[in-house]
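dumping this here so i dont lose it
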């Protein structure tokens, strides 16, 4: 075993942290102590999605690190779990616009999370948007459900006025 092997070997055995994932910025704990009221209020707003209705937009504010993102992701994850048990079409899409700083990149991220492959650049915003809508309608068409709710979580003030949810209803 040469020196490099022994470094890798030692690193693969050393366990300083039981679960490194908890340090990632996107990590959402399984439980969120002291946030039950916020969780309940957000859940009440998004719950109509289970009936295929469009929930109201939500503006969440508070000091950095107080759990806005964690609460939102937690509630939407639970909503999505329940929706899939009930056969309701609810999908949440998380876009961190600190990393996706233009409308094109935001939409491209949304498209990718919906399973669409889009180029980094080259399409117009309108074209990108229409591909997303087509994709959503296609998803809708293959299911019995008549509507789909898509939650988009914007992450900065510039995008705070974006619609946070979009419900497409098949006519
Ligand atoms: N109730 C809680 N109990 C324990 N840890 C929590 C709780 N809420 C959030 N956290 C953790 O605290 C950290 C910060 O939370 P989060 O990113 O949700 O804050 P934020 O309000 O969205 O901050 P920012 O304004 O900077 O976006 C994360 O690691 C998250 O997992
Ligand atoms: Mg946040």
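and the seq i came up w/
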């Amino acid at each position: 075993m040469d020196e490099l092997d022994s470094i890798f070997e030692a690193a693969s055995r050393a366990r300083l942290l039981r679960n490194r994932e908890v340090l990632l910025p996107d990590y959402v704990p399984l439980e969120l102590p002291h946030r039950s009221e916020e969780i309940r209020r957000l859940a009440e707003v998004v719950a109509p999605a289970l009936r295929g209705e469009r929930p109201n937009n939500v503006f969440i504010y508070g000091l950095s690190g107080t759990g806005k993102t964690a609460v939102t992701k937690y509630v939407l994850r639970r909503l999505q779990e329940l929706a899939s048990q009930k056969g309701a079409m609810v999908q949440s899409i998380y876009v961190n616009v600190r990393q996706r700083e233009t409308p094109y990149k935001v939409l491209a991220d949304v498209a990718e999370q919906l399973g669409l492959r889009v180029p980094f650049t080259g399409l117009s915003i309108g074209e990108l948007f229409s591909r997303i809508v087509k994709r959503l309608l296609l998803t809708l068409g293959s299911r019995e459900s008549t509507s789909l709710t898509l939650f988009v979580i914007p992450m900065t003030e510039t995008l705070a006025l974006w619609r946070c949810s979009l419900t497409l209803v098949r006519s």
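The first strand starts at residue 89 and ends at 94.
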